[in-house]
Amino acid sequence: MALIVQKFGGSSVADADGIKRVARRIVDTHKAGNRVVVVVSAMGDTTDDLIDLAAAVTTEPTAREMDVLLSAGERISMALLAMAVTDLGVPAHAFTGQQAGLHTDTVYGAASIVGVVPERIGRVLKNNEIAIIAGFQGVNRHNDVTTLGRGGSDTTAVAFAAALRADVCEIYSDVDGVLTADPRICKSARHIAALTYEETLEMAAHGTKILHLRAVEYARRFDVPLHVRSSFSNKEGTWIVNESTRSRWDGDNEAPIISGISHDTSQAKITVTRVPDEPGAAARIFQVVADAGSSIDMIVQNVPVNQPGQATISFTLPVPEIKRAVFALERAREELGFAEIIKDDGVGILSLIGTGMRSHPGVTAKFFAALAEAGINIDMISTSEIRISTVLAAADVPEAVRVVHKAFDLDAEDEAIVYGGTGR
Length: 424
Ligand code: ASP
Ligand code: MG
Hints:
Blueprint: E1 3-8, H1 16-31, E2 35-40, H2 46-57, H3 63-87, E3 92-95, H4 97-100, E4 102-104, E5 113-116, H5 119-126, E6 130-134, E7 137-139, E8 145-147, H6 153-163, E9 168-173, E10 194-196, H7 197-205, H8 213-222, E11 226-230, E12 238-241, H9 243-250, E13 257-264, E14 267-276, H10 281-291, E15 299-302, E16 310-318, H11 322-331, H12 333-336, E17 340-344, E18 347-355, H13 361-373, E19 380-384, E20 387-393, H14 397-407
Parallel strand pairs: 1-2, 1-9, 2-6, 3-6, 9-11, 10-12
Antiparallel strand pairs: 4-5, 7-8, 11-12, 13-18, 14-16, 14-17, 15-16, 18-20, 19-20
Helix pairs in contact: 1-3, 2-3, 6-8, 7-8, 10-11, 13-14
Family: Belongs to the aspartokinase family.
Catalytic activity: L-aspartate + ATP = 4-phospho-L-aspartate + ADP
GO molecular function, one term: ATP binding
């Protein structure tokens, strides 16, 4: 008898019909001989609506009361879903985060999980009944309700799957899983059967909308197999598992496995010229940028041969963070001793993700050849064991995605069906 945790996002329970459809799936899973624990998000846009309501009564909502307010969204959906499941003949019991035993620290609005004690959930399972848990919320040591941050229900689901040692944590949304590229710019994008946790983290960090990063990190730490799938179909979704489990899909040879392409046009590039080429120069620059609150992705430093003693440092960061970073650098100009700051917000980052790339030089060569053939100029490059990223002109990104997709034989025979899905 398997133990399955099923998490349903807001789009799956947007209205009464959605709740009934989801209830049917839960009961079917139970009838097939599984033990089932459900984690549910707030219905549709409820959380956004509650945030708007708070903003309508005050410009400075208090953090503690904000969590009381937002946790209400999931209380509604958990109660209705438990009723709908019970109505189909299998007793179901709804639990708030506190009742279910999800303990957090005291950071309202962005609480971290400190422990999961699913005692009551265990009792429900023992009776062969169904537990429905409100996602996104927990209780802190003051006995106050806390929330885990936007999209936090994924993390709730993984946390209970880990604590209950579930066989799988199924994450349901309105898309069929993860594709090899964004189908809006690459019509031949293909469905991915399985990814490792590491690849998923890289894809999510480089522009592919999949899951909450935190949920994937949690799953990796506790080795919880995830199955990302649609609640609107019965298709297999994408499995996210550890490397040895993933080899079941790929065979166990040593060929590099190219999983997919991510792209991100929300980054900008800053270049700092004529930085003194001496120990500590980079440390000072990145300390200033870090103090300005910027999260840096790629960094390239180069000392031109015709300019000994002077380095050029370029790095990428999210567009909304440029202003503050540049301001902070300018302010520290004297201490840092550079000549010029050049901003470029017309860049995009293309990343090829797959296992075993560094040990296969052919992968990098093929990647660059594909871009060269399309006449696409490469600006910056960074590589890791499972990723090659390049900075390009933002305008080149769609074509670059298509040519790289083709070069690595990722093209599907049929055009991808583009759903209007949100992935939530
Ligand atoms: N309802 C919360 C949100 O919209 C949590 C979640 O959906 O995961 O952010
Ligand atoms: Mg939501």
